[in-house]
Amino acid sequence: MSDISCLYVRLPNWVGDVCMSLPSLRALHASGLPLVICARPWARDLLEGVAKQDFIPMRGKVGPDRAAVSAHRRALGAQGRRARGLLLPDSLSSALVFRLAGVPSAGYRDDGRSFLLRWPVSKPDDSLHAVQSWHYLTREALRRWGLPSGPAEPGPTLDLPLTAAHRDAASLALEAAGLAGKRFVLIAPTATGLHKGRIKVWPGFDTLTRALQALGHTVVMCPPPAETEEARRNAPTALLLPPLSLGAFAALTARAALVICNDSGVSHVAAAAAARELTLFGVTRPGRTGPWSPRAVCLGAENAWPSAEEVVQQAETLLHETQ
Predict the structure, then answer these.
(1) 108 vs 11, 13, 259, 280, 299, CA distance in Å?
(2) Mean pLDDT per segment of 10 residues, for the chain of length 323 residues?
(3) Partners of 84 in beta bridges
(4) Which one, out of 14, 175, 193, 287, has a CA that is 20 to 30 A from the CA of 263?
């Protein structure tokens, strides 16, 4: 029998990456050991329905994060000395936090951090989807710790557990907008950051919105506060809903007849909530970061955005299928 007392897992810093980590979290939970999730503060709400032992908010700064993990580990007493850590991010700083906090850890060798890891793991084929890559790392760590590692491949869905509070918040937002019981298309016309210096936002959201409205569809959007103005510029005629927490937003995607988005966090939140979605690509690889869901359709390619006509046609096809 293993003498490991609990497992600390450092999740990635991006919303979409946290969603793609869900199969890894399930594999860790299946070990039967208490699980301590270390992630950015916003992840607490998103993962509220995920079975877990505890949550430590990470601020992205080595000193405060090390102190938070160390304090949690000390509070466990003798059990804290028998903990293990898994690092899903490739960063040197994440490995340094666990090392300084006294948590022996497993993780990929990237960023010259092997000396900080007790169990460094070489990356598999770079063609793997991110979900598969993190699942592989998780199974390797469990195997090296002498724990059950579960199936060789992650399942076909992410299966984010939504809470009653998440669903209620989404329902209230729809009721306030006069959309209770009505079909709507949810668009996400923003995407944070750049990919290799290129903008990740499909340029045709205004044209798409007006075309769908002309066909009789209600088009709504629900961006976070920091992206509201950009969303207004990119789709000025769409109905703007007030910002929701990530868990409530996931519940909103599940209520939509169709979600249309960039390859961004929204795509992965929608996939995690099993929403019907159309994800648009133009600068990233669908095979590496596309939505992990049988209900998702990808349009475009790494270096070629789809035309507005193609997106409208595909959206109409998917909306007809869900009637």
Answers:
(1) 13, 16, 34, 30, 31
(2) 87 97 96 95 96 90 98 90 95 96 95 93 89 97 95 96 97 97 96 66 96 98 96 97 97 98 96 98 88 96 93 97 77
(3) 7
(4) 175
pLDDT at 1: 44
Residues 272, 158: contact at Cβ < 8 Å?
yes
Cα separation, 188 vs 167, whole angstroms = 19
Reading the block at residue 206, the tokens are 């205004």
Cα 184–Cα 185–Cα 187 angle in degrees, nearest 5: 140
Q: What one-character DSSP code corresponds to residue 44?
A: H
Tokens of 3: 């003498």
Secondary structure of 297-316 as H, E, C letters:
EEEEECCECCCHHHHHHHHH
Cα-Cα end-to-end distance for the chain: 53
For the whole prediction, is pTM greater than 0.90? Answer: yes
> CA 188, 321, 272, 244: dihedral to nearest 10 degrees?
40
Q: How many residues does the chain have?
A: 323
- 3-state class of 140 per DSSP? helix
- CA dist., res. 323 & res. 317, Å (int): 10
- pLDDT tens per residue, range 92-136: 999 999 999 999 999 999 878 999 999 999 999 778 999 999 999
Give the count of beta carbons closer than 10 Å to the beta carbon of residue 175: 11
In single-letter form, the type of residue at position 177 comes to A
User: How many Å apart are CA 156 and CA 15, to the nearest integer?
Assistant: 19
**Three-point CA angle 261, 266, 271, nearest 5°:** 95
Question: For 138-162, what is each residue's pLDDT tens digit?
Answer: 999 999 999 999 999 999 999 999 9
Q: Which of 1, 70, 78 is nearest to 36 (CA)?
A: 70
The residue whose two tokens read 């076909």 is 156
Residue in the structure block whose two tokens are 């349009």: 299
Q: Which residues contact 111 (CB under 8 A, 6 or more apart)?
A: 90, 91, 92, 95
